[in-house]
Amino acid sequence: MLFKISMSNIRKSMKDYAIYFFTLIIGVAVFYIFNAIESQTAFLNMNEDRREMIRFLTTAISGVSVFVAIVLGLLIVYASRFLMKRRNKEFALYMMLGMSKWKISALLLCETVIIGAGSLFVGLLIGVGLSQIMSAVVANLFEADMSNYRFTVSASAIVKTVLYFGIMYVVVIIRSGFVISRCRLITLMNSGKRSEKITMKNTWVCMIVFILSAVVLSYAYYMVGWNQWNLNTDKIITAIIMGAVATFFIFWSVAGMLLRVIMSVKGVYHKGLNSFTFRQISSKVNTTVASMTVICLMLFLTICTLSTAFIIRNSMNEQIEKNFPIDFFADYGKTETIDGDEYPLYSSIDDEYSQKGLDIRDEFSEYHNFHVYYDREFTLSIFIGDAINDLNGYFESFESAGKSMEPIMKLSDYNALMKLYGKKTIELKENEYALCASFEPMVDIYDRLFSDKHEITLFGNTLANHSHHTIKGYIAPKIQPINTGMFIVPDSIIDEAKEDEGLLVAADVFAGNYKSSDKKETEKIEKEVLEKWKNVMGNIMGEENVGYSYYTNTRIEAANSAVGVSALVTFLGLYIGFVFLVSCGAILALKELSESVDSMPRYTMLRKLGVEEKDITKSIFLQTGIFFLLPLLLACLHSYFGMRLGKFGLDMVVVGSFTKPMFFTAAVVVLIYGGYFLLTFFGSKSIVKEQK
Amino acid sequence: MSLLKLENVEKYYGNKSSLTKAVDNISFDVEKGEFTAIMGASGSGKTTLLNCISTIDRVTAGHIYLEDTDITKLKGKELNKFRREKLGFIFQDFNLMDTLTAYENIALALSIQKYSAKDIDKAVKTVAQQLDITEVLSKYPYQMSGGQKQRVASARAIVTNPKLVLADEPTGALDSKSSKLLLERLSFLNHEHDATIIMVTHDSFSASYASRVIFIKDGKVFNEINRGADTRKVFFNKIIDVLTLLGGDVSDAL
């Protein structure tokens, strides 16, 4: 019997429940999909590095899942409370008919269980389906082989989803039982009437509050958007609190303010259904100030999270192209320890290879092999003088950094390397030197020195700076190359035999591209090259007091780590973004749809007055649209200024334009939030449709 | 030529096995400038009849002509246009927009007919004066008394200068003082501004303000009396007489 009533109740209030149910399904599905990534990727063939990345990713996701579950839980509690309020009259009827509060609670329990079980089942079904697509996405992202892939259902993710959502539903059941046990018949019966009272605000007060909030908000924007150098954690928190409070008061006053503005233009206000439409919007906004604020802030967070994630991802991809223009880079150095100090010794990759009867050049189609030198007498502190103190803070011990010898390379080597990298070559006169660096604080110091003539002495030759600027660039490619400085000098002043003049060979460098035409071949060759390298470098005959250092980095390795980071941020960003957007959309949709149910008599009246169907549809569209647009607009504004701060922070680590990531963010927001808008619009339209 | 002409109007509810004839073959004419009251007990079909005239409901058979237009044949947009331009409604429960002020409620009827803001202002102020509601124009419905609300609703009904004003139990939710005030205003509009009014009521006091009363029983016209040159009091007594006859019939059946 109870079950029968529950079922018919659900069927009857399907209009109210549809969005709720739909949201639950999305929540369950998203929760499952992200938590199933581990199982989904178990059958993909990929290398150990990437496998490790995925392990890290799944750990991060399960951490975020707790947070996501809390957000979804709050949403579910809010939605169920909201739906229960709408049924006060129904409960009153049950009580009048003599149903006990226990019975009503049992009825609600029954309903929650039906909806919960239904949403879990459908959500998991959809989740399992979509997670197969997710596997393909992951495989594509991590360039994994899907040939062994088969349809996967993650039992652990199912258990986790059921457990988390089960807890949420239990909370809902306890809450509703509690509410029922406390309510009184008379308040239930009068609840319908009470809600009809409309809160009307003085429009002039609204104007003043709105302007004040806008001023406060502008100040907060200024703090994070332009005054970034003076920011500290306290100030950021102040700005956030100011922003949040101002957001609340803007929603408190915006309807009244807009109404006042529109009313003052009589021609607009008294045109068609405008007066009705704007009053509807203002009454809706005025009764949802708190929710609107929360939604706006959540949208703000979503936009920031998503765009940051996409910016990092975009930057990672671009950095590979920009900062790793060759397949393979390696250096090899030898040092001798004399009285506790290390001195570089002559080193040659070729020598080591030939000892094993090998040649490193075999696998390379184009390459350059060169030496980097030191001048025993030429250290950083000699070069930059007192400016060394400016580096305090960048290096743990800037004094020892000052003692380190500066690396030097021949002009011909530099130009050959740049040609290999596809970058600009330079020209030097016989008595000139150039400096190539990328680390900003150092570049600043160098540029200051170069604003004047700055002579240096190398191997007994006096050289002058060739221009007033440092050449911005790197010698060793990395995802984020940090080059503190490489001196480029004319070939003529370097003679490897002149060791007595202080010339030391710092390292032997080899950079090149493989003899390969496609990706598969590249991977194969790389394996061979690295194998050979390990073979040679790992078996060098040791000498007493001599240290060896060797280093390799390849484009594939760099790409691997970049893929890991970008996948991590993308997944987490999308996960949080999805859940937030769905929550925002669901709250607004529930509110708007229930408003439509309440407003049905108003539309009936409009029809009796002879209003065209088309105008009613237009009015509903405007109402829904503005209701959804208001928090989004403010959130976009918040995000714009928030991202100014973000950009300030990110600029140091990311490259690439912000346009594409912003576009992706907008696409995700429009897709989900816009989807909820459309659902709500069509839902409202069908609710207020003429009943015949 | 009469303004409104009903020809054998019928309205049935239900299906073949249980048919309710809410309106059973009713015909009458209403002249321009007439104040007609339709009286009858609950369930006599008077509201259904009014709904048919106002095109809210469709007739099962018969025709209703308003100035040569057969309104039973109107559809969709034409129907909306007809309601908008030719009719004015007054309902028992006022049906004002609770989110709009009195002024805006009245203005809404004009703005959906695309009047300019200037014309709207003028028309609203004039009609407010006629119905004595100038001082409540800036108030919301919840700040007004029932009588004031009903006069605002009446103002909205007549502000567009409709051919026909239809009132469904306009005094049903009002106290006697407010009822009297409203009815006096309606008859003022009828006399001074030549408004044609059809009012459905079961209250003989309300009906006595009309110039003509049609009695309906079980979906059929039972009787019809004209006020002629009678005073309202005399007319009221006549109505009571007819009602006694009507009621006697009912008690016979019991």
Automatic annotation (TrEMBL), chain A:
Gene Ontology biological process terms in this record: transmembrane transport
Organism (species): Ruminococcus flavefaciens
Name listed for the protein in its UniProt record: Putative ABC transport system permease protein
Pfam families recorded: FtsX (PF02687)
InterPro entries xrefs: ABC-4_Integral_Memb_Prot, ABC3_permease_C, ABC_permease_BceB-typ
Transmembrane intervals: 17-37, 57-83, 104-137, 157-181, 202-224, 236-259, 289-312, 563-590, 620-641, 661-682
GO cellular component: plasma membrane
Stretches assigned to the ABC3 transporter permease C-terminal domain: 64-174
Organismal lineage: Bacteria, Bacillati, Bacillota, Clostridia, Eubacteriales
Family, per entry: Belongs to the ABC-4 integral membrane protein family.
From TrEMBL, chain B:
UniProt keyword annotations, A-Z: ATP-binding, Nucleotide-binding, Transport
CDD domains per the UniProt record, alphabetical: ABC_MJ0796_LolCDE_FtsE
Ranges for domain ABC transporter: 4-243
Pfam families in the cross-refs: ABC_tran
Entry-linked SMART domains: AAA
Domain of life of the source: Bacteria
GO molecular function: ATP binding; ATP hydrolysis activity; transmembrane transporter activity
GO CC annotations on file: membrane protein complex
Family from the record: Belongs to the ABC transporter superfamily.
Protein name, as recorded: Putative ABC transport system ATP-binding protein
Originating species: Ruminococcus flavefaciens
